[in-house]
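Figure 2 data, in text form.
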Amino acid sequence: MNDRIALYGKKSDSLESLLRRLGFSPVTPEEDPEALILCYGGDGAMLGAELRYPNRLKMPVRDCETAPHCPKHSLESQLLAMKNGQLRSSTLMKLQGTLGDMTRFAVNDVFIHNTNNVSALRYQVKIDDDIYAREVVGDGVGVSTVHGSTAYYRSITHGSFRVGIGIAFSNSTELLNHLVLQEDSVIKVRILRGPSELVFDNSPEVTPLREGDIVTIRKSDQVARMLGLDIFMCPECRRIRREQRANGYEDSTL
């Protein structure tokens, strides 16, 4: 593996001395377009790196200050495993949301929200060739990948899934079932009344939507290439993180 490692993340500069001690040469992603991108932080750092540098191999590593690593997955051990070629590579499916000639790509999800918090969004949903809902009144609707199902999708549905793509309806006045569809499904959302906007992953880009706009969401041909995603946060790392948060908040006053 190339000994040049491109750093990404707010606190990624703190890794430079350790990387040099292990025989790596830290660079910026722009300095070496072929270098592995080390995303240091949390899910946001990984998503942000994919938005900015799509199609490049990335290794996500948790910021040990906010998400302590278990003894098995210390920062140094993860970097050594990467250096020795011991990390598993994987790909994450991406979604694409299209409006006219504009297309957005997402690792987690594509969501359509009401712009005004006190004004409900009215929209229609079509799945493949069938109308699923002629008129939905609520805060919005989102389509999620398997990876994204443990994020915003889960906060709405209180569940996740392991195959396919999911649709979550946020605060709809109608009793609608959240759906898990086949990967090749095509979802179309027509805006009946807004104001509304399209957002994706943690991107700061927001696309305003007008009455009559149709957003088409489907599986993309693009994928996100990851290294060591299976140890990004193992069950023991998650347990330690939960305990740290509980201990940190139990004496706080409101």
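Caption note: The mean pLDDT is 90.
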